[in-house]
Amino acid sequence: MAVLISSCGNEKKDENKTDKDTTKTEKPKKEVKKDEAASMDKEFKADKNGQWAIAAEASSSYAGKATGKTASWSADQMIGAPDVDKYGDNGKAWASAEQDLGNEWVMLSYEKPVYATEVRIRMTYNPGAVARIELRDVNGKIIEVYNAKDTKKYNGKIAWFVTTFEKTKTLVKDVKITLDSKGVSGWNEIDAVQLVGTAE
What we know:
Layout: E1 2-6, E2 21-22, E3 31-32, H1 34-46, E4 50-52, E5 55-58, E6 103-125, E7 130-137, E8 142-147, E9 159-164, E10 172-180, E11 189-198
Parallel strand pairs: 1-3, 2-8
Antiparallel strand pairs: 1-9, 4-11, 5-6, 6-9, 6-10, 6-11, 7-8, 7-10
């Protein structure tokens, strides 16, 4: 099951910036109200079973070869808890090198391998491009937990994309997210990705 949770905001990017296990999931089907969505930031940060990425890489980055938290729009901007406070283009989120070119991907790694049950993606600019979510377990096996087209209309708001699935049978350490950048016009920026699960 995937749940969409919208928040708030208002900004625009400079247009010159240029062998699988499958777990059954459903398309996103719920959006909560603005005030409820805002509370999710606090709730997710306090979740003892949730952890934020400690490393990140991407198919491309607007930061080019630059890395680290000081490199705006780099993959490293997805490391740690959310830090983008309003909707719009923001260097504290990851952005691909170009917009609307097709599939882009990001890969997040986590400190503690867990039996995963949920992935939470905080999308802060032009949300809705998430097309596939895959987990990689400690043995390198890929587990697909989401594969669908997101048909939700976001109307210029930060959104949490939450997909819930049956507890994995093996410990998971990485999350790969594929975005269909042609599906949502503009740069599709991601602030943070939380992996939820337990060690047992």
